[in-house]
């Protein structure tokens, strides 16, 4: 339930977190797009999907931010005081669920794509993960918007069934294909899977907050912060780890690519201070650069 009023501190906290999420998603997305050529072509799909996920999330947080600003107003002179919910302009939690409905299947696609498994294995994993993830989000929504804790609990429980199934596929079935990954990558993939478990686990906890007997406004603020922090970790940080995996696998797959990316030895020599073709003196190359 959306609270009738927020204190100044509660309003500011939510406001600042939404702003932080927009910055994190937007620039993570841009970073991943400009870094595409730093991995081999076969890993670019995973990184493009990671960038799209963060882009979709940035868009929805702009909408969430606007919805929040329209939903709560203060009439205190000077703008300090309680914020009251505007009649007829409720905060729209639907943006989150539409965002998740799009991004959660894509996050799973990112993970499977970066592994570059045999096509048959890949298709079989995705054919189970994607419908399960859509079902998990769709079942959560009726509970999320209900003011009744019984309904919230029921749909939360139903949504947990596909969630448990996703974890089973990732932690039991996927493990079988991990031994075919390069040794340096296996550890990072396990870490990524653990990050997925820890961050995805925050969503059901944040969902439960309104049922734990907290004051209505505190529970709502806690839930918004929980979802916001989890979104940064599960999308932006997760995408950056996908990038790291893609880069390590690119090096493991192709020695000449690794040599080009990791060393400046093969770059044409320029004498420090001598004018280049553009007429601008070449900068002194710092010693030890290029080891990344
Ligand atoms: C970027 C957004 C992500 C990764 C969202 C993930 C969302 C979940 C794992 C949500 C799970 C839920 C339950 C397992 C039960 C209660 C209802 C949900 C939808 C919050």
UniProtKB/TrEMBL annotation:
The chain crosses the membrane at residues 14-34, 46-62, 100-118, 125-142, 154-174, 194-213, 225-243. The keyword ATP-binding does not apply. Signal peptide: none annotated. GO terms for cellular component: membrane. One of its GO terms (molecular function) is monoatomic ion channel activity. Keywords: Chromophore, Membrane, Photoreceptor protein, Receptor, Retinal protein, Sensory transduction, Transmembrane, Transmembrane helix. InterPro entries: Arc/bac/fun_rhodopsins, Rhodopsin_retinal_BS. It comes from the Bacteria. GO terms for biological process: phototransduction. Pfam families: Bac_rhodopsin. It is found in: Membrane. CDD domains: 7tm_Proteorhodopsin. Residues 268-292 are annotated as: Disordered. It is a multi-pass membrane protein. Belongs to the archaeal/bacterial/fungal opsin family. PANTHER family: BACTERIORHODOPSIN _OPSIN, NOPA (EUROFUNG), PTHR28286. This is Xanthorhodopsin.
């Amino acid at each position: 339930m959306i609270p009738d009023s927020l204190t100044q501190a509660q309003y500011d906290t939510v406001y600042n977190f939404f702003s932080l999420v927009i910055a994190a998603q937007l620039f993570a997305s841009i970073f991943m797009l400009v870094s595409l050529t730093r991995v081999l072509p076969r890993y670019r799909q995973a990184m493009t999907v990671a960038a799209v996920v963060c882009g979709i999330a940035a868009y929805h947080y702009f909408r969430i931010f606007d919805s929040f600003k329209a939903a709560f107003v203060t009439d205190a002179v000077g703008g300090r005081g309680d914020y009251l919910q505007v009649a007829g302009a409720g905060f729209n939690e639907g943006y989150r669920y539409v965002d998740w409905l799009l991004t959660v299947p894509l996050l799973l696609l990112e993970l499977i794509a970066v592994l570059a498994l045999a096509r048959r294995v890949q298709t079989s994993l995705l054919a189970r993960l994607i419908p399960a993830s859509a079902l998990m989000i769709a079942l959560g929504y009726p509970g999320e918007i209900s003011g009744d804790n019984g309904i919230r609990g029921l749909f939360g429980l139903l949504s947990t069934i596909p969630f448990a199934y996703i974890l089973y596929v990732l932690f039991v079935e996927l493990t079988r294909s991990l031994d075919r990954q390069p040794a340096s990558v296996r550890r990072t993939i396990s870490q990524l899977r653990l990050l997925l478990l820890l961050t995805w686990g925050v969503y059901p906890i944040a969902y439960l907050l309104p049922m734990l007997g907290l004051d209505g406004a505190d529970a709502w603020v806690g839930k918004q912060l929980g979802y916001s922090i989890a979104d940064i970790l599960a999308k932006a940080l997760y995408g950056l780890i996908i990038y790291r995996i893609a880069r390590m696998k690119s090096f493991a797959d192709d020695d000449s690519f690794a040599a080009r990316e990791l060393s400046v030895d093969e770059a044409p020599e320029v004498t420090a201070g001598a004018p280049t073709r553009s007429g601008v003196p070449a900068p002194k190359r710092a010693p030890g650069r290029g080891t990344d």
